[in-house]
Specification:
- The chain is an alpha+beta fold and 174 residues long.
- 46% of the residues lie in helices and 17% in strands.
- It starts with 11 loop residues before the first helix and ends with a helix.
- The chain contains 5 helices and 5 strands; from the N terminus they run αββαβββααα.
- It has a 5-stranded mixed β-sheet with strand order 1-2-5-4-3, sandwiched between helices.
- β4 and β5 form a beta hairpin.
- It has one domain: Beta Polymerase, domain 2, CATH 3.30.460.
- The protein is globular and about 40 Å long.
Length: 174
């Protein structure tokens, strides 16, 4: 599968909101919050054109009862997909693609690390630019090698996550 990184699309927030409404209808009262995460959630960043969503639910054990409804929306049900406690769904479509990373409300580590990186990149545009440049270059070099693309940005992402989490925990929360 080819690695494709594109310039920021001003329609990504609208796409997120549209898909959020659909997920809210499926998960109903079990949905605590839903967040737009990943590079498409950071204005100005280059990104793979995939909307990453982080629904927070009261109980992840209840997610499976909604698998059929997610499949009706075109999602592939992928279980934990490498992250314990997560429920992952993926959809590739003609209009746009989505990854849905569902975590239980008590899984603060996974929720906070995603929100921290997003908020840090929003707060520090120079870091967002540096990350964008890295992703663009890696996508150019490893266009036909997704594992090499991912590996090439791993050190940057781990450092970013550590810095972002420290910064995030120091921020005043509502």
């Amino acid at each position: 599968m080819q690695v494709r990184v594109t310039e920021y699309n001003t329609h990504w927030p609208e796409m997120f909101m549209s898909e959020s409404e659909k997920l809210a209808a499926i998960f109903g009262e079990g949905l605590v919050a839903i967040h737009h995460i990943g590079s498409t959630a950071v204005p100005g960043m280059t990104a793979k054109p995939v909307i990453d969503m982080l629904p927070v639910v009261a109980d992840t054990e209840q997610v499976e009862q909604h698998n059929a409804a997610m499949e009706e929306l075109g999602y592939r049900v992928m279980g934990e997909f490498g992250i314990a406690g997560r429920r992952f769904f993926s959809r590739s479509g003609n209009s746009f693609s989505c990854h849905v990373h569902i975590f239980g409300q008590h899984d603060r580590w996974n929720i906070d690390r995603h929100l921290a990186v997003r908020d840090y990149l929003r707060a520090f545009p120079a870091v967002a630019r540096e990350y964008s440049e890295l992703k663009t270059e890696l996508a150019r070099i490893h266009r036909d090698n997704r594992p090499a693309y991912v590996s090439g940005k791993e050190e940057f992402v781990l450092d970013l996550q550590a810095t972002a989490l420290q910064w995030y925990m120091e921020q005043e929360k509502p």
